[in-house]
Specification:
It is a single chain. This protein is 82% helix and 0% strand. It is an all-alpha fold. Helix 2 packs antiparallel against helix 5, helix 13 packs parallel to helix 19 and helix 15 packs antiparallel against helix 16. It is globular and about 60 Å long.
Amino acid sequence: MEERNITTTTAATESQAITTNAGTQEAAISDERIPGKLIGAIVAVGSLAFIGILTETVMTVLFPQLMREFNVDTATVQWITTIYLLVVAATMPLSSYLNRRFKHRTLFLAAVALAVLGSLIMIVGHAFPVILIARVIQGMGSGVATPLMINIILEQSPKSKVGRLMGVGSLVITVAPAIGPTVGGAVSSILPWRAIFVIVIPIILLVSLPVGLKCVEQHRPTEEARLNSLQFVSIVLALCGLVMFLNQAGVAVSAAVSGGSATVSAVFAVVSLIVGLGALLFFGWSSKRSFSPLIRLGWLRDPMVLLHLIAYMLLPIVGIGFGYVITNVAQLSLGTSAFLSGALVLPGALIGAFFAPVGGMLYDRFGPVRPILGAFFAAICGPILLLVFSMRLTPVTLAGFYFIFGFGYSLGFSNIMTNALRNIAPQFMPDGNAVFNTCLQFGGAAGTALFSTILLVAQAGAGEEGGATFRHATAVGGSWTFATMIGIVAIAICCLIAAFRIGAKRNSRL
């Protein structure tokens, strides 16, 4: 009897000790502090990415002005945005190799140099091809900076703070496209549009560069990684081919609708599609058989991660494309000024700035399902309302319905990537980061090309810009784009629901 009591007491003591240790560990995790230098590094590298994305979307509000200055049409001027996003998307696949091969500080300095050089060319360039070259250089800088920021967060953040820091990183990705039109409209209303890039250079050299030199650190050794140039060329061809297909297919449809010749554009679209799909298939085939692939893709065999990736690629089509659609519908349909059309996205941008980190905190506390699905069920209400009221929109309703979308989008978007990368082995995180960021930028490029094409088709044969017929045609094109947005967000939500069901089944088996 006495022995039984001793055993019971011992077991109770051990149980209490285990509970105490678990509580102590949980408290220690919750008390993990974010190093000051990590915050500085995120600010320095993130500001480069922010400026790059900002200047990309600044240009969308200037499209009508640029069309007149360079004497180009809607389909041509949108390449200022599309070529930038394409270059960023083409640079992203290199991020896994660059992260393994070079130190963080070296990559940071390269991003600074490219951002400054591109801005200088934008200031002095007075021909449309020169402007496109400048956008290529700026795209390379952003293509280095954005994944570098994410890699620093993933490698150096305390585990209990990853969600909220990824939310801060997402703030760069989601807020910059939203406030870009506002900045562009404000600056262009009082200064020449090139002044935007005059302002950018001192910010980079006086803020980003000094903070980065002091705070960007290397916490892991570099490797003797090799660049697979054939695979790099194939992924660039794939991205360019698929976006060119969207663009030229739209030009062909527009020409057919307006009674013109669509043969050349249609042939170019088909060839681009064949090249894009062929190059993408070759890249996947080559990566499986290569000893040192550009990006290791084995982790994509997990259907849960793959479904997250599909959603992460689809949603920026809407998120980034919204800036183009709102500013152009506002100017070309509602007749607003460039400043006012840019200001219409400001409320959604401000709510995004606040709720991106909040979404990460909700993820850290409640897990992925409720914060992500709840956010996007709220987000889809925005384009639904825009479609319902599309033919009787006012600047106020346009801004208000976008505000609803911006709230949901910023609350949940970064959590998709965070949750997917948590299900990838640590050694493959740079590869996952490269693929997710590539798909993000490709989605943005595809969205701009897709929505500009829809508006172009609607405007075909509608007369001169500014006329009543042209304004009505633009409003019709807006309704088509809002319907397309609803479908895209709905597909993304379905992918996420399927992914969470797979995860739930796995957890139930453990």
